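Handoff note, outgoing to incoming analyst
You'll be picking up this chain. Sequence as last confirmed:
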Amino acid sequence: MENIGIIGAGSWGIALAQLLSNNGHKVTVWSIIEDEIKMLQEKHEHVDKLAGVKLNDSIEYTTDLESAIKGKDVLVLAVPSPFTRSTAHSMKEYVANGQIIVNVAKGVEEATLMTLSQIIEEEIPQAVVAVLSGPSHAEEVGRGIPTTIVVGTEKKECAEYLQNVFMSDVFRVYTSPDVLGIELGAALKNVVALAAGIADGLGYGDNTKAALITRGIAEIARLGMAMGGRFETFCGLTGIGDLIVTCASMHSRNRRAGILIGQGKTYDEAMAEVKMVVEGVYSAKAAIGLAKKYNVEIPIIEQVNLVLFENKSAADAMKDLMTRDRKNENLDIPWDND
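Most recent structure output, in case you need it:
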């Protein structure tokens, strides 16, 4: 049995708390919001973000960050991506040398173009940082629906240790050393999911969705590989797998926000109606910055930015994507008569 601290009591943090408790670990959940902790203590359920999932009585809850961190074998950092840096900064003084932090949020910081693990390493240099990602809606993980996911670290031994900590008969965990590729796939798929939702809101069909998913993963892989990620990662669970589930499911807050925008809601109206952090919005501008830095074309993500931040109509964005210059789908496949 391991002693685990969950930093963040959103839907994903709570789903992982239940999973890890079911695995036999001692789990403590931290939130900065006193009313949220009181609700969890009294109801053993997050009625706002994970309704219907009754939590094990053994899970403990606290607003004391120090007690949630000290003495823990593993820390799971589960705050929304815009709060990763500030939370990591607050954690630093309590984290022991070599203590493992598993980041489960998804995003890229706009101001620095850093991935979330890079932010944690900068703020808490004494920690060992890992990432956990894949097609894994909290609503399903919390209910014990079979799910597969990937844990990424630089050290094989750490990855295999975390694999054992998280894995169960309903939660299959693979390992990978490609931390960068995992994080980029996780962050950028949220932007493509916004595009998929916008297409749904416009009333388009399965053909359009399939096009956005396949050309979207082409953009993600092109940028990710230019930055040093591995092609195999973008073909796997944290690439095409996570992209499919996020573009197709109504559990996806990014897709839901996109649907509202496609239906004519403003950016602010869509964010207010979803009532949760839409992480693709925060990664969209960062993706443009990365594409410029590495000289990579990402036309779908570019159009999402124009719709979100420059008042371009969703219909015009789709038309511009469809009428781009003619292309060969894969330049690496030669013609026999060339």
